[in-house]
Amino acid sequence: MYSVFQMLKEQWINRKLIISLSAYNLKSAYAGHYLGVLWNILQPLLQVAVFYVVFGLGLRGDRGDVGGLPFIVHLITGLFPWMFLSGMINSLSGSIQSQIGLVTKMKFPSSILLSITLVGGIRNVIITTSIVLIISVFNSYGSLANYLSFFYFLFASTIFVYSLGLILSTLTILVRDVKNVITNVIRMFFFMTPIFWSLEEANALLQNIAKFNPFAYLVMNYRTALVRTDSPFYGGWTDHLFFWGLTLFLFYIGVHIHYRFRKKIIDYL
Amino acid sequence: MTYKVKVENLSKVYDLNKDKISKIISLFTFGKIYKQKPFFALKDINFEVMSGDSVGILGLNGSGKTTLSDLLGEVTEPTAGNISIKGKSSLIAINAGLNQDLNGIENIKMKCLMHGLTEVEIEEKFEDIKDFSELGEFLEQPIKTYSSGMRAKLGFAIAIHTDPDVLIIDEALSVGDETFADKCLVKIKEFQEQGKTIFFVSHSASQVRNWCNKAVWIQYGEVEKFDEVDAVVDQYSEFVNQFKNLTKDEQLEYKEKMLTLQKEKSKHFKINKDEFSFFNMFIGLGFFSIFALGVYGQILSIL
Question: Where in this chain does the record put each ABC transmembrane type-2 domain (chain A) (predicted)?
Fold first, then answer.
């Protein structure tokens, strides 16, 4: 338990460093690009376009709205949080391995490398969310109470991906194959999560599976926050209990694995 | 006078067990089930260094010089024993991590931030670093276009401006040209006058003789001699000359013999396993039971 507080303290002490280093990360990612940071908006929009053509116009045909919302709105409220979650799990699990070169010859807590990546991801999801927010306010899909619960989504998903990131970033260094496994598992979850399909219209089996899918919980919370008016949070108390039980457990395991191996990571590379 | 750096019974053991599966098992059983294959990179190192001392670290390839400098720079942790350093240490190596995509200016700022300097301090020191690196307008180019000499210069310029109390130079100067090395020498002299401690890793005996007042000779993971620089360097040079006079086969045989000896000594060592904490397991089980309750609740809500 002590190491959990130590981990949080480490992030708090280095908060300024994390923010400024994430700016350098962004610079280095788009070094030599003509459009630079603009890709942070273009990338998700292009992906939405592809999915809209395939699922909206292709698979669904001309079936119209999903639960009172145009399909495109349904799609982006699923795809944007998904891109945040999956992108973060991918990049967090590689974050120590890819940035270790910078810190090999210096004293530097490697948990900060994860936070640097995370800050970049949060910045992106805020950008994409503001697009959704503009659409939602313009068409008055949501309400203020719901909009505020976006911060609940942000908080919950940050802790969730950070916990997974702590575990996976260490595992990736020990066993390189983990990275390939992650890619495939994430792809599987993409289809199991109500992103382009609707949870309410789905088959009962699929609905039951979604109850055990933390991504479904998070994506549905995002959608509820931005384009629903009924209640600011998605899910019943068992959904919350399941998600937080899982997340806290993963976080605890992650912190311990991270501390156990952080001093030896250099020896493994 | 009190010490600046004190190394007591320092050992660094690497595990040569390459078996990935046993590593994973070790990860999930908290290191309970694990077969080790220990190898001493450093064994029972002891020395004490005063402030103002410059210590040369001599030794053949693979004798543990870089391992020692990593430990002194607090980059890795010793397996056994202690290093106490009064103040901040900074390690300069050839492959000092620079971001290949960023340019020199951005790298200077980023590395200084990582070394714990504030924005204001960086502003103050930026011009000095720029001048010292001699890179001029090349600083606006990305690092990936730099030559190895340019990289070493930049790395060196950054590291000595982070104001360390203990500076460890790991062969970083062997890439720079002599004019740059001379400039570094001036800076190092300045540090010596300020009473800072410098470790200088090299296989070149003459460089160590010029720059240091003390030296430590490491031979296959153990301290062969730690003394005033002349005494150590003389003995080291004698050894190297003797070694050179041997035929190729004899040289190989000698190295082989020493390595087996090193391995032999390593066999009896047990790496301390982490303490198993019941408290931690208890808390872990607590979180797990919340999760289990959640699963149970979800199942109930389906039925």
Answer: 35-261
Cβ contact A32–B142 (<8 Å): yes
Contact map slice: B 105-144 vs A, CB within 8 A: 106, 109-110, 113-115, 142
What angle (nearest 5°) sits at the alpha carbon of residue A135, between those of residues A134 and A136? 90
Whether B241 and chain A come into contact, CB under 8 Å, resolves to no
* Token digits of residue B224: 């062969």
Instruction: Inspect the interface and report whether the beta carbons of A1 and B77 lie closer than 8 Å.
Output: no
B185 in contact with A, Cβ within 8 Å: no
CA dist B187 and A50 (Å) reads 59
Inter-chain CB proximity B292 and A256 less than 8 Å = no
Is residue B299 one of the residues assigned to a domain?
yes
Specify if B140 maps to a domain. no
Residues 6 or more apart in contact with residue A48 via CB below 8 angstroms: A72, A75, A76, A79
Asked whether the beta carbons of residue B298 and residue A239 sit closer than 8 angstroms, the reply is yes
Tell me: the pLDDT tens digits for A81-106?
999 999 999 999 998 888 877 777 77
B261, part of any domain: no
Model confidence over A247-268: pLDDT tens digits? Answer: 999 999 999 888 888 777 776 6
Domains of chain A, by residue range, sit at: 72-268
Closest CA in chain B for residue A238: B297
Go through B60-77 and write b for each residue having 16 or more CB atoms within 10 A of its CB, e for each that does not.
beebbbbbbbbbbbbbbe
CA torsion through residues A181, A185, A188, A190, sign: negative
ipTM, interface predicted TM-score of the complex:
0.81
Within a 10 A sphere around the Cβ of A134, how many other Cβ atoms?
Answer: 10
Say which range, A59-73, B19-33, B249-263, has the weakest mean pLDDT: B19-33
How many domains would you assign to chain B?
A: 1
For range B27-45, the mean pLDDT: 71
- With CB atoms and an 8 Å threshold, state whether B298 touches A103: no
Q: How close A174 gets to chain B, by Cα (Å)? A: 8
Flag whether B293 is in a domain: yes
Q: Which of A106, A176, A246, A252 to mutate to test the interface with B (most CBs of B within 10 A)?
A: A106
Regarding pTM above 0.95, the answer is no
Tell whether the model's pLDDT for residue B34 goes beyond 80. Answer: no
Host domain of residue B279? 273-303
